């Protein structure tokens, strides 16, 4: 039997602002979180992710802004009345209670009778695959188990919104990878609106329905993982998610010129005369001989070739000095024949993968 | 064992190859332990001289009768005479009451301090500790002055119309308790305060997030987590009270006789070292039993995980 909440709730955030002295932890954030979706707040450390989550939970009082769960304005509602599940970064499990005591705590507060309470604790423990651990003390659990108990405690009272602040950051890589998939399944099973905070782009890409990229308290882009990765809206997003080199290009009439040669693109270019082309290592290819018209070619000189087991990295320098990196899988038969440092090569980028963003000058200094 | 294996094991060269440097490393280990013992020996000696020897001497003297031979008369007297039972009862009563009042005043005080910003709290803590900087005797006599018939407390109380006749606030149990609570309070407040400071704010946030209002969160999360500190503080106060002398002697006015005072009178008036030592031994043993039971109690609570 699955615990499906009566309904999930959409969250509407408008003009949310919070300053600490001169620091804008949140700067006029507008964000619509759909009912039942898994939305990830992604950004570097100090970008305001935790602050936004704490505003949702009611622990941080913003300077101004509006917050609605469904149609209800909740911005001035105290935390204990907001009825949302939350997994804290360090889990915040009560050390003076057992696992079962922790999970039963929200049910006791809601006046749920003993028999039902116990049944629901057992069910919640099974949901997070910790059946039979109810009697354990918190300090007898491993990091991964604590994470699951915190999750069970956050979902046992069937909240319609679930918040998580970097819940996997304390786990080792293998466990983290497994928990990402498990959390994703759990979300599909329970269906509550989930807001997840992480600074790990891969985690965000793996788990989310949509990703909200934030930096310096501002929303930089909101979209599905593929959209964020394939069509970054600006230099910050392109730089923060995945690796990329940036090539300055210019608009001349209807054409986009790169070092004097026209650049083929499939998606429309953004406004402005000065633009940047994004070159992702895994989208570049090594050309030999003829260049098909849908491929943009970049003549370059190899500066380094790095073997990485399953793949190799080739660093190459364009005529104007821009450093590009190309990544491809290592095939036993061809690796030995790859051009070494000093060789002249032609790198190709498919028009489909040629993405242009405005050159806002930000992050120009290396 | 095959002959070949026997030959291998017997060969010293083979043994050395299997466990290289084993002997040398073992010797280094022994040398290190000896060096550690050497470093610890001054401390051990000090403990021996100022703690073990006097306590052993105390035990020995308590079994010496008035005629100088071995006897149990010091202990028999304690059991046979009603006055001794009365003294032990008073000692425990005063200690319990003092501890209880200290908890009633000290716990809320510590809570209040723990909620202040750290800088302000530190300033306030200094005022809590201030009494430590004046002598115990001075503080006790100050209370005598304040609490006596024509003292400040009675004068203010009467002029404010709170009571008509001067209250008897000193030379009795009330006076003793007032003085002892004043002196013991910091011993309770400090451990409770530090236990409360150590409680992660996120536990309270989690409680609120799960639906607990401030009062529920306090009783279900904050109070249980501060309990070990309260327990430690209460134990310190109680044990200190058991052996307390100056304050009950001055403020009790001879009506509150605790074990320590009986020990003093046994020596000063009767020069009976045996009787005094026996009282000391009983007090020491009682205290140890209380500590042992208390430790058990805390261990049990930890095992049960508390909470329920
Ligand atoms: N209580 C606070 N006092 C002062 N500055 C704070 C406080 N909380 C957060 N900040 C600042 O606000 C910014 C955003 O912080 P935070 O939301 O914790 O970032 P993130 O979770 O994305 O790492 C940071 O610059 C941080 O230093
Ligand atoms: Mg954070």
From TrEMBL, chain B:
Limits of the ABC transmembrane type-1 domain: 88-294
UniProt entry keywords in alphabetical sequence: Cell membrane, Membrane, Transmembrane, Transmembrane helix, Transport
Keyword field contains Cell membrane: yes
Species name: Paralimibaculum aggregatum
Family stated for the protein in its record: Belongs to the binding-protein-dependent transport system permease family. CysTW subfamily.
Transmembrane segments: 42-66, 87-110, 116-134, 175-196, 203-225, 231-257, 269-295
Cited InterPro entries: MetI-like, MetI-like_sf
Name this polypeptide is given: ABC transporter permease
UniProt subcellular location: Cell membrane
Membrane topology: Multi-pass membrane protein
Domain of life: Bacteria
């Amino acid at each position: 039997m699955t615990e499906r909440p009566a309904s999930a709730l959409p969250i509407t955030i408008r003009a949310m602002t919070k300053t600490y002295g001169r620091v804008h932890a949140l700067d006029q954030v507008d964000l619509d979180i759909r009912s039942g979706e898994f939305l990830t707040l992604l950004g570097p450390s100090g970008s305001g992710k935790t602050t936004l989550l704490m505003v949702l939970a009611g622990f941080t009082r913003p300077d101004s802004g509006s917050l609605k769960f469904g149609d209800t304005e909740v911005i001035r509602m105290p935390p204990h009345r907001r009825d949302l599940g939350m997994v804290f970064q360090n889990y915040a499990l009560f050390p003076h209670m057992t696992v079962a005591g922790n999970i039963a705590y929200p049910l006791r507060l809601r006046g749920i009778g003993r028999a039902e309470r116990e049944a629901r604790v057992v069910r919640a423990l099974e949901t997070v695959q910790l059946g039979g651990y109810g009697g354990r003390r918190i300090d007898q659990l491993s990091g991964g188990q604590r994470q699951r108990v915190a999750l069970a405690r956050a979902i046992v009272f069937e909240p319609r919104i679930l918040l998580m602040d970097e819940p996997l950051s304390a786990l080792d890589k293998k466990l983290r990878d497994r928990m990402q998939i498990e959390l994703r399944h759990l979300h599909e099973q329970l269906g509550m609106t989930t807001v997840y905070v992480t600074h790990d782009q891969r985690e965000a890409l793996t788990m989310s329905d949509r990703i909200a990229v934030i930096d310096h308290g501002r929303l930089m882009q909101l979209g599905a993982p593929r959209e964020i990765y394939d069509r970054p809206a600006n230099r910050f997003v392109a730089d923060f998610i995945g690796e990329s080199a940036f090539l300055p290009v210019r608009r001349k009439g209807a054409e986009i010129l790169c070092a004097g040669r026209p650049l083929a693109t499939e998606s429309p270019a953004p406004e402005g005369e000065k633009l940047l082309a994004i070159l992702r290592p895994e989208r570049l290819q090594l050309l030999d001989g003829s260049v098909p018209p849908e491929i943009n070619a970049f003549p370059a000189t190899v500066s380094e070739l790095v073997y990485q087991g399953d793949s190799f990295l080739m660093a190459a320098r364009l005529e104007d000095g821009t450093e590009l990196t190309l990544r491809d899988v290592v095939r036993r038969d061809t690796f030995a024949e790859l051009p070494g440092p000093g060789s002249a090569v032609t790198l190709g980028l498919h028009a489909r993968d040629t993405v242009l963003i405005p050159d806002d000058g930000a992050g120009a200094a290396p | 064992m095959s002959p070949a294996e026997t030959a291998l094991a017997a060969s010293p060269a083979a043994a050395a190859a299997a466990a290289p440097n084993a002997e040398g490393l073992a010797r280094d280990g022994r040398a290190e332990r000896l060096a550690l013992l050497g470093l610890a020996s001054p401390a051990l000696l000090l403990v021996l001289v100022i703690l073990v020897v006097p306590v052993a001497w105390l035990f020995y003297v308590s079994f010496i009768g008035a005629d100088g031979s071995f006897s149990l008369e010091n202990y028999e007297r304690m059991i046979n005479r009603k006055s001794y039972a009365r003294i032990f009862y008073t000692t425990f009563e005063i200690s319990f009451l003092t501890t209880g009042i200290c908890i009633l005043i000290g716990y809320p005080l510590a809570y209040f301090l723990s909620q202040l910003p750290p800088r302000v709290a530190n300033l306030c803590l200094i005022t809590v500790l201030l009494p430590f900087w004046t002598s115990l005797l001075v503080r006790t006599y100050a209370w005598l002055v304040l609490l006596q018939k024509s003292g400040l407390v009675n004068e203010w109380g009467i002029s404010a119309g709170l009571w008509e006749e001067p209250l008897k606030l000193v030379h009795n149990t009330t006076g003793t308790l007032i003085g002892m609570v004043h002196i013991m309070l910091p011993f309770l407040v400090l451990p409770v305060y530090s236990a409360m400071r150590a409680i992660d704010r996120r536990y309270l946030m989690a409680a609120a997030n799960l639906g607990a209002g401030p009062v529920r969160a306090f009783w279900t999360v904050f109070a249980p987590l501060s309990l070990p500190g309260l327990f430690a503080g209460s134990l310190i106060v109680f044990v200190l009270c058991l052996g307390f002398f100056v304050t009950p002697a001055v403020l009790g006015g001879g009506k509150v006789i605790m074990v320590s005072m009986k020990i003093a009178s046994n020596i000063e008036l009767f020069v009976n070292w045996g009787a005094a030592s026996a009282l000391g031994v009983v007090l020491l043993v009682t205290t140890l039993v209380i500590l042992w039971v208390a430790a058990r109690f805390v261990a049990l609570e930890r095992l049960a995980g508390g909470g329920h």
